[in-house]
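Q: I have 348 residues here and want to know how they pack in 3D. Can you give me a structure?
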Amino acid sequence: MEAKRALGASAATTSLEQRVRASGLFDPDVYLELHPDIPRHSAEAWRHFLRHGLEERRAFTSPLVVARLLAQMDDAIRAERHCLTRLAEGAAADGDVAECAAPLRRRGVKIGVFCSSLGNFFMREIADLLAWGLQAEGIDAVQRDENANRDERFDLRIFVAPHEFFWLGKGRNWTEIAAAPGSVLYNVEQPQTQWFCRAFPLLLEAPLVLDINLQSAMILRRAGCNVVHFMPGHLPSARYAQPRLDISDIPLAKGYAFARRPYDWQARNRLDERPIDILFIGTRAPRRDKALLRLQELTDRHRFVCVYRSSSEPITEQSVAAAEQSWVLAQRAKIVLNVHRDWIGYFE
């Protein structure tokens, strides 16, 4: 019996190693550099990661490793993007988009959309769009956080930002549910980060993974994950899309005449009438500071509004109010500028 158990454990470790190697994410030299407590040779790096590091959710990759991997995958990524675009255009032309949810409606499926109450406020916005989109299709969907009753019955549980949900506060108590039937993990983190590494062992075991980024989805597919690329679509009924006529109470806009003028982007959506030429909203990072400094000549000639946000602001009434300020300013901007926090692109 003991021999059978040992053989089973060995086979599981071999399978896990094959999946990690196939992903292309693990680099033994990076792992050793990040964790000086491990003996300094490649074989030991692999052994430690498979036996301890993965479970401990240690970081194991780097931006350079991921950049090389994406370069190797470039042809496959282009082909996948082309295929997905053709499928989406064909479904839209045939009028099939609205019927995708029909099987779930007929079965009366109940879906819980889970998001950490201690995580970054913009994860809540993703969870909102996901839940509201399901509800708009007539599906019974409700939002929950880590304080919810674990015995509440759902046909599907979707965990938004698993790197936060299963890591922060009481979310650690939900870890065993990540691999349970009916669990869906919605990854929204870039693969080169330490936060992605925290979620990676859970993504490997999840019945289904959604990924907001196509490239990340394809990397996880290499690792044997059952993964689908999914980006929440535009939802006209979402409160983020609703016009806010008066923004005179927003401190950043005070002093501008346009803040006191009623503006309804849905009633008259003319780009040349939007009062803000360029808008940037994001956390402060060295790469962003350099990029904005290089754009100074351009921004000096136009009305440029820059809003810096905290990178770790939890979900509070204040953060929700600040997020609302961001989207009502975006409704008034000709260009909303995106500058990545590091040199690897995301969503391109």
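Q: Anything worth noting?
A: The radius of gyration is 23 Å. The longest helix spans residues 2-23.
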